[in-house]
Design a protein that fits this description.
Aspartate Aminotransferase, domain 1; Aspartate Aminotransferase, domain 2; 3 domains
Length: 464
């Protein structure tokens, strides 16, 4: 008996994919009327086409009737219309999680963005003089006040700041850098590649673990455009090591007429030693060491928006500002608004530790974290989610304090970690946790207190 004959004799053997409705028949059926009233016709058409294709390729089972097709199209419509960039709850324990957007902004920075976004602003207009102004002026006074710099320039990220510095001082010339500082940052971007893109020829000195002042002295020539000092913020070297301090390099640069650029990276503005976070220089420390330019990130330890902040001597910053490349790397009004509001909080360092989310997370005490974890676990248990509270070790992230281990607490969900992780990722408010020893952990250090209740709601909804 042929396959066709068997299917004719027993319809159950017929492949449902051979009876797929056309997209036009679905749209004309009336079952999609509510969806067509809610969304533009071409969007619903795209969703219907995706629904039919999902059944054709076997990723979805064929619905039983038109109402089933309506539900499938509705699900596709929700997927299509959902924003690609979405908020998530960071329960990984990594405070500055690069993949999850790094620093959440302070409330005042969010308000500042809203204020300038809803209308016009004096972005490049001098209200006192009644004439054209400069976008570069808005954060300078705050940076002078907080760091002690003579002048400042803000570009769109720290890599851009380094490229601008290299292009300004060393295009078609040489930059000297220690082999122990040829680091790779996130996304496979390497410092040597960035500097070559800035038009410079690298002169590597010293070895991976030991570099001496004499190495720099011997490398300086009439082709030297700059000396680069890169803070190793995302890894540490220990054991038989030797390094050259920024103050020594600054003195050498001054003596030989070579600018010294210090890539500080993580952007710490106030010391965190009393909280057990040591070894990361502040921007003020770096400037006091005598560098001509210090570069740092805005969205790491500083706790603001993505930005590359350049601090230094007025004559040097003016050269950077005059480089045509600066226009290509400039920041927009929303970044300036958020950065200015964040910097203003540093006028009161004690208040900044509480009002800047990153600093509040990093300085939270284990007892306070345990209390929050137990409250979350109790709420989940009351809603039928099997869990417990366990000690956890969290980290700073963002290429800062690489050796620091922060004692924390987490809610451990019982069950298959892979299944749980997928369910929480697919929740309406996605929850991103960390798997350890076969358990899915929700570390509270990387959650803001106001996120505890949404976390409970999202986990309950995803696992119910």
């Amino acid at each position: 008996m042929t396959k066709a004959a068997r299917e004719a004799e027993d319809p159950r053997l017929r492949d449902a994919r051979r009876d797929l409705p056309s997209v036009s028949s679905l749209l004309d059926s009336g079952e999609l009327a509510a969806l067509l009233a809610r969304c533009p016709g071409r969007t619903v058409t795209s969703a219907a086409r995706a629904a039919v294709e999902s059944v054709r390729n076997g990723s979805q089972q064929a619905p039983a009737g038109l109402d089933g097709w309506r539900d499938l199209v509705d699900a596709e419509l929700e997927s299509i219309t959902r924003a690609s960039l979405r908020p998530v709850l960071n329960a990984t324990g990594v405070v500055l999680h690069t993949n999850l957007g790094r620093a959440p902004l302070p409330a005042s920075a969010i308000r500042a963005i809203q204020d300038v976004a809803r209308g016009f602003s004096n972005l490049e207009y001098d209200l006192e003089a009644g004439e054209r102004g400069s976008r570069y002026s808005h954060c300078v006074s705050l940076l002078r006040e907080i760091t002690g710099c003579e002048d400042a320039l803000v570009v769109n990220n720290c890599a851009a700041a380094l490229i601008l510095a290299v292009d300004t001082f060393a295009r078609d010339r040489e930059v000297i850098i220690s082999r122990g500082e040829l680091v790779e940052i996130g996304g496979s971007f390497r410092i040597p590649d960035i500097m070559r893109r800035g038009g410079a020829r690298l002169v590597e000195v010293g070895t991976t673990n030991r570099t001496h002042l004499g190495d720099y002295q011997d490398a300086i020539s009439d082709q030297t455009g700059a000396i680069i000092k890169v803070h190793r913020s995302n890894f540490s070297i220990s054991g038989f090591t030797s390094d050259v301090g920024v103050d020594q390099l600054a003195a050498l640069g001054k003596e030989r007429g070579v600018p010294v650029v210090h890539d500080l990276g993580s952007g710490l503005l106030i010391p965190l030693d009393e909280f057990g976070l040591r070894g990361e220089p502040t921007a003020s420390d770096a400037l006091a060491s005598g560098s001509d330019v210090v570069t740092l990130s805005g969205d790491k330890l500083l706790g603001g928006p993505q930005a590359g902040i350049m601090l230094g001597k007025a004559t040097v910053i003016e050269k950077l500002r005059a480089n045509p490349l600066a226009r290509a790397l400039r920041v927009d009004k929303l970044t300036i608004a958020a950065l200015g509001a964040t910097l203003a909080l540093y006028r009161d360092p004690a208040a900044a530790l509480q009002s800047i989310p990153v600093l509040a997370m990093l300085t939270a005490t284990p007892p306070s974290l345990e209390s929050r974890a137990r409250a979350i676990a109790a709420a989940l248990l009351a809603r039928g989610v099997d869990c417990s509270v366990v000690p956890s070790e969290s980290s700073v992230g963002g290429g800062a304090f690489p050796a620091a281990v922060l004692q924390s607490f987490a809610v451990a969900l019982r069950g298959d970690a892979g299944i749980l992780e997928l369910a929480l990722r697919e929740a309406a408010m996605p929850v991103i946790g960390r798997t350890k020893d076969g358990q899915l952990l929700l570390d509270v250090r990387s959650l803001q207190p106001h996120e505890d209740e949404p976390l409970t709601t999202s986990v309950t909804g995803a696992l119910s």
